[in-house]
């Protein structure tokens, strides 16, 4: 079984939680005799989170120039991770590091590419539970990624999962669906979910709305991303067909001697053909844009101010980027 792991943790305003979490992770890794690295990504916290992170050793700390969001923070950490097994988790202390060895065992025993945590007994406020369950219900209906709780940050991956995966928006919630689309195998394990001891939840209705929009994007990606013409072209042809039928009615009315200025059918025919043709052409353009997307995806949607590697508390190496 692989014993080299990278633990990636995005954080934002978690000054009261990062030290405890770091020591819990370190204890688990030492007990399991892992070769490990802990990567924190500070998403431009407004409190003293970055200062608290610099006290921890050994660790790698990515500091953003501004607040870019959890997905971008996670993506930056994943790009820095060097070991063949990657663990992701939240920085609020609600994920339990003691679950990591069991998840890694399930990963290899079942030859999965990823194992996702399932917070079956959540320690969250009632309102947040209701929102989460509603989101999970919609996610299962729309994208059917085969897991119970895609919002759980505690996940274990084989590194190759991220060789060709771009994250944006609030897509960190839908990584299992994105991987399933690419053919990776996914497992799930019930994990311990602990109450938050310090700080406040970063969840808001705006973030939930963005996540819902991204869910629609994943649904589209799953159904039509490879050939968007299948969706737009199909819609265009249906409208053109409707225009053809209305054209037949127009011809029939004309043959009966109907005054064309007194009927709406010629206008319906004309607009149906024009709108259908425009949608069909949009599908062709989307196909071409899709090809360009696959050929060039080098720009990162975030900016890193510095990467800090704390190998020794007394000596901090800062790498400007």
From TrEMBL:
Biological process terms in GO annotation: lipopolysaccharide biosynthetic process
Occurrences of domain Glycosyltransferase 2-like (ranges): 6-164
InterPro entries: Glyco_trans_2-like, Glycosyltransferase_2, Nucleotide-diphossugar_trans
Residue ranges of the TM segments: 229-252, 264-286
GO molecular function, one term: glycosyltransferase activity
Keyword line: Cell membrane, Glycosyltransferase, Lipopolysaccharide biosynthesis, Membrane, Transferase, Transmembrane, Transmembrane helix
One GO cellular component term: plasma membrane
Record-linked PANTHER family: UNDECAPRENYL-PHOSPHATE 4-DEOXY-4-FORMAMIDO-L-ARABINOSE TRANSFERASE, UNDECAPRENYL-PHOSPHATE 4-DEOXY-4-FORMAMIDO-L-ARABINOSE TRANSFERASE-RELATED
Protein name: Glycosyltransferase
């Amino acid at each position: 079984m692989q014993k080299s792991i990278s633990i990636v943790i995005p954080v934002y305003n978690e000054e009261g939680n990062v030290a405890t979490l770091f020591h819990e992770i370190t204890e688990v890794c030492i007990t399991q005799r892992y070769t490990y690295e802990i990567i924190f990504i500070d998403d431009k916290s407004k409190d003293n989170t970055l200062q608290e992170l610099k006290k921890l050793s050994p660790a790698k700390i990515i500091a953003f120039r501004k607040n870019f969001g959890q997905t971008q923070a996670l993506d930056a950490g994943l790009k820095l991770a060097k070991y063949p097994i990657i663990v992701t988790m939240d920085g609020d202390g609600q994920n339990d590091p003691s679950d990591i060895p069991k998840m890694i065992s399930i990963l290899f025993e079942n030859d999965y590419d990823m194992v996702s945590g399932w917070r079956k007994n959540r320690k969250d406020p009632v309102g947040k539970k209701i929102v989460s369950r509603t989101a999970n219900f919609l996610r299962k209906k729309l994208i059917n990624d085969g897991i119970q709780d895609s919002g759980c940050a505690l996940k274990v991956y084989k590194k190759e999962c991220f060789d060709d995966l771009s994250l944006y928006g609030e897509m960190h919630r839908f990584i299992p669906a994105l991987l399933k689309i690419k053919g990776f195998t996914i497992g799930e394990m019930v994990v311990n979910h602990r109450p938050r001891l310090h700080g406040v939840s970063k969840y808001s209705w705006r973030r939930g709305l963005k996540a819902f929009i991204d869910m629609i994007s994943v649904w589209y990606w799953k159904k039509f991303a490879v050939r968007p013409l299948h969706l737009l072209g199909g819609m265009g042809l249906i409208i053109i067909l409707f225009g053809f039928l209305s054209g037949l009615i127009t011809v029939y009315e004309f043959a009966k001697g109907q005054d064309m200025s007194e009927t709406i059918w010629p206008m319906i025919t004309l607009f149906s053909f024009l709108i259908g043709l425009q949608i069909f052409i949009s599908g062709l353009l989307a196909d071409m844009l899709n090809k360009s997307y696959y050929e060039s995806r080098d720009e990162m949607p975030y900016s890193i101010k510095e990467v800090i590697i704390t190998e020794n508390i007394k000596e901090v190496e800062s790498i400007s980027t």
